[in-house]
């Protein structure tokens, strides 16, 4: 796949393998272990942790984390990368899926990245945490009544899930909605780009440029390259037309899976 995508990426993948950049760990089926790419400050090198089960999902994990690895620069960790690195890796998975269909007639239509099928959950988690923040800013505190009032605004099927998130926030004193936003926009942007790719309306050379330059680009430049209109840089708000384009592509791609 990497060779067909670009021989430079094929060379990069083989180089990282020879360097021991991938830590392959065999795990049992349905393990809670998840793949990740990171910088090991003790070893002063980039690493990719890959728990595997010997399924096709492992291949998607390799593709996803390798794309992360290509744009990880520990000396230049930028907001732009944090916003778009999930998009890059998820779109890479779509391209890999397309590669399997075209070259091996493997119509798995399966992505290892669980968040493709969890866009609603990601949005739910973000919205819930923003509701907590708004309540805190309005009142200066959040009591049990405030929490349950917020909880009742959500579908009852998800209230237990959100309650567990609330307990996690209390125990850790930490919110992660910004992290979840990266996944949420990654899903939307990757579906948007893949929809255009299938319609011969997306330049893969441009995608490679974005990936290879992501640590040196501003967010508005990336959106502009993707033909999306950023109207408020401080809040990273897109135009209504851009949100409509993202929504339509997401629905189209997800309905065909």
Helix/strand layout:
Blueprint: H1 2-5, H2 7-18, E1 22-26, E2 36-40, E3 45-52, H3 56-70, H4 79-104, H5 119-139, H6 144-151, H7 159-172, H8 177-198, H9 204-213, H10 219-225, E4 230-232, E5 237-238, H11 240-255
Parallel strand pairs: 1-3
Antiparallel strand pairs: 2-3, 4-5
Helix pairs in contact: 3-4, 4-8, 5-6, 5-8, 8-11
Task: Describe, in plain words, how this protein is organized in 3D.
This protein has helices at 2-5, 7-18, 56-70, 79-104, 119-139, 144-151, 159-172, 177-198, 204-213, 219-225, 240-255; strands at residues 22-26, 36-40, 45-52, 230-232, 237-238. It is mostly helical and 257 residues long. The longest helix is centred in the middle third of the chain and has 26 residues, at 79-104. α5 runs antiparallel to α6. 27% of the residues are buried. The radius of gyration is 19 Å and the shape is globular. β4 and β5 (237-238) form a beta hairpin. It is 60% helix and 9% strand. It has a 3-stranded mixed β-sheet with strand order 1-3-2, with helices on one face. It has a two-stranded antiparallel ribbon with strand order 4-5.
Total number of helical segments?
11
**Form type:** globular
Strand order of the largest sheet: 1-3-2
Q: How many E-type strands?
A: 5
Q: Return the string of H and E elements.
A: HHEEEHHHHHHHHEEH
Report the span from N to C terminus. 21 Å
* Beta-strand residue percentage: 5-15%
Keywords:
three-stranded mixed beta sheet; 11 helices; two-stranded antiparallel ribbon; 257 residues
Quick recap of the structure?
About 60% of the residues lie in helices and about 10% in strands. With about 260 residues, the chain is mostly helical. A 3-stranded mixed sheet has the order 1-3-2, with helices on one face.
């Amino acid at each position: 796949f990497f060779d067909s995508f670009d021989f430079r990426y094929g060379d990069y993948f083989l180089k990282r393998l020879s360097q021991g950049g991938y830590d392959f760990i065999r795990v049992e089926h349905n393990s809670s272990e998840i793949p990740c790419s990171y910088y090991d400050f003790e070893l002063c090198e980039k690493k990719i942790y890959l728990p595997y089960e010997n399924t096709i999902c492992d291949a998607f994990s390799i593709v996803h984390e390798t794309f992360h690895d290509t744009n990880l620069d520990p000396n230049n960790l930028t907001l732009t990368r944090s916003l778009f690195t999930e998009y890059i890796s998820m779109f890479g998975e779509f391209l890999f899926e397309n590669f399997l269909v075209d070259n091996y007639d493997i119509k798995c239509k399966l992505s290892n990245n669980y968040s493709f099928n969890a866009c609603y959950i990601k949005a739910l988690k973000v919205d819930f945490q923003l509701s907590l923040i708004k309540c805190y800013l309005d009142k200066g505190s959040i009591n049990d009544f405030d929490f349950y009032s917020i909880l009742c605004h959500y579908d009852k099927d998800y209230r237990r899930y959100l309650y567990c998130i609330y307990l996690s926030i209390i125990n850790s004193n930490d919110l992660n909605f910004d992290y979840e936003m990266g996944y949420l926009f990654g899903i939307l942007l990757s579906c948007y780009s893949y929809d255009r790719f299938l319609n011969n309306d997306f330049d893969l050379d441009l995608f490679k440029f974005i990936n290879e330059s992501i640590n040196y680009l501003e967010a508005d430049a990336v959106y502009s390259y993707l033909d999306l209109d950023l109207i408020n840089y401080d809040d990273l708000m897109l135009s209504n037309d851009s949100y409509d384009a993202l929504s339509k592509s997401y629905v189209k791609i997800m309905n065909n899976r």
